[in-house]
Amino acid sequence: MPQLLPADTISAACRGELQLVIEWLTKGGHIDALDRGGYGLLHGAATGGQLRVAKELLQRGASVDLRGTGGITALMGAVAEGRHAIVRLLLEHKASTDLQEADEMTALMMAACKGRQECVQELLQAGASTALRDQGGITALQIAAGNGHAAIAKLLRQHAATPPAS
Q1: Is the pTM value of this prediction over 0.90?
Q2: Contact call for residues 33 and 3 (beta carbons, < 8 A)
Q3: Which residues sit opposite 40 in a β-bridge?
Q4: Which of 5, 43, 105, 146 has the most CB atoms at less than 10 Å from its CB?
């Protein structure tokens, strides 16, 4: 049976309490263990916007694309919360931009839905696909437009119209 991440440890990661996280790891805690809710330390640090904790976890070998409940990754969690600096960090560590969660949403779709323009820009620069569709057949562009995020829709249109650099 895989090791269970204690609720207080993931809470510590989310709040930026690096010492508590390191203590748990030093006592034999697995870097990619999941809590009862199905989330890991990197998910906690990413959604909590805890850059120092996220950097430490990645340096210690945390899986950048670890899938939590419903297929959620730390990148998706960071995007959902608008944690731009964390998004950049995860992309620097080669987080997969086009993974899809249970509803087939990508990080780009989530950013488009939530109106996270800086995150959309980071994801596009990292090569995120604008062509992927969610469970309902909807693209990131359609999501942005449908949620009234005109600037993001424009960005996605421009990106789709730009030929890739050779």
Answers
A1: yes
A2: yes
A3: 34
A4: 43
